[in-house]
């Protein structure tokens, strides 16, 4: 549990008619595992049981007045076809209007359609489940819809793709709030991958190679254990005992991106961990994660999250937000 005496960050999850039970449970499961750093409560519009998209109803303990007390509001997916066809019901609009200015709003899967119908995503980037992306864009043309990512972080409004991308987004928020060490701890307890970059493809055409084919998992694990080395795609292909062309194709099939892009992301992720948990210099960290120079680390970190290494370290040591001067 928390020992700093601070009030936990309150997350209110709004269950609407036709809610998807799995996604509804994600915030409580993930944030609720962070040793008391978050308080997660669930509400419906009127505090009564809400119909799920399965063969059961879900009872909740709160009505929409709970939204007025939230630090973060989460909108899980629900039956959005009526919203796409007829707009947002007045009761839902009124509930969302009660959210205090500056409160973080998070959607999982088609929950983004609820947020969009309330006018909160106009002129912003967003994502949703790939199967709804085209209709989402047609219905809300002012939104910059990206159907090819797991989640989009636009500061105070964050949207994610389907199902497990909601887990990724919740872990991303814990990492943003408390750093990689806490997020990794939560991931271990939930037995889920600790980190999938938001820009990773949400839909991979061939996620599993044929049973007779060799995979790239062992080469990826070896790369993670040797990030300090100047690894190349040829090194990884040799480790997998494949030609460069075969390895690159199979890697993209399994991971959804090129080996080079994946390797840079792993180096940046490891650098972020070291910035948060050690006093090593930027140049030393660059060497530990396989970037040739501190300047190279600064460039890649800025491209990934928009801040300089020392500003990133200061944020997680002091709890102070990154300012424009840090970028």
UniProtKB/TrEMBL annotation:
Q: Does the keyword Ubl conjugation apply?
A: no
Q: Which Pfam families does the record match to this protein?
A: DJ-1_PfpI, HTH_18
Instruction: Spell out the Gene3D superfamilies in the cross-references.
Output: 3.40.50.880, Homeodomain-like
Name the InterPro entries on file: Class_I_gatase-like, DJ-1/PfpI, Homeodomain-like_sf, HTH_AraC, INH-QAR
Occurrences of domain HTH araC/xylS-type (ranges): 217-315
Q: Which residues form a coiled coil?
A: none
Name by which UniProt lists this protein: Helix-turn-helix domain-containing protein
